[in-house]
Amino acid sequence: MMRKAGLLVWQAHRxxxxxxxxxxxxxxxxxxxxxxxxxxxxxxxxxxxPGKVPFPAVTxxxxxxxxxxxxxxxxxxxxxxxxxxxxxxxxxxxxGDAAVTLPIGRVHPEVQRLLDVTKGTLDLAVDxxxxxxxxxxxxxxxxxxxxxxxxxxVEAFVGHGIGRDMHEDPQVPNFASxxxxxxxxxxxVPGLVIAVEPMVNMGTKRTRTLRDHWTQVTADGRPSAHxxxxxxxxxxxxxxxxxxxxxGETL
Length: 251
Ligand code: MG
Prior knowledge:
Blueprint: H1 2-19, H2 26-39, E1 43-44, E2 59-63, E3 66-68, E4 82-91, E5 94-103, H3 109-129, H4 135-149, E6 152-153, E7 159-161, E8 168-172, H5 178-184, E9 193-196, E10 199-201, E11 207-209, E12 216-218, E13 224-226, E14 229-234, E15 237-240
Antiparallel strand pairs: 1-4, 2-4, 3-12, 4-5, 6-10, 7-8, 7-9, 9-14, 10-13, 11-12, 14-15
The structure holds magnesium ion.
């Protein structure tokens, strides 16, 4: 059931990737994904999420130094930008949630490395989930990988359990945290489903909130990247529910 929602999120990301070019606005991409979910009778998860103001869109679009929770609008993408796009939907009562950072045209090589390392951190997490007993082991490996690359892991935001609701227990930090040491750790057992979402900054890990009450930016204005998958633990290991269809799998 969750795979169906996950596949729809994967398709929404494909649609976004096909549109993410210089001259296109984040609002146009958001509108296309809203239409896509509606056509497939899925409910968007992000619109109306409570805050000082309810989140007003179906996707979070975060450009360059924006880390997460950027609001789509009239801003046009330009060559050399990076766009972090996060979206999720509920289909037949089950949720899927995924994010990807897209290069707009040609980006600076160091920015491309930031994207590669952040994607690499998520890939590493999936791999380690098949080999480790506890999440804390995966989180420590993710943090070490990012440190080695010379970048930093954002600590103000973490991943989450996901199922009938988008945000469920447990919290899923992408670093070796005090919270994991103080009883927040959990076993990687079949039936567990979590959204793993490393956010990696080129400079400081610190973030601040813009006056729109949502957009999170890096404190030093340097770029940030974000990749996320919804991942289920099964008897045969981790299953990336928001991943590309397998051969022969129907959409
Ligand atoms: Mg998420």
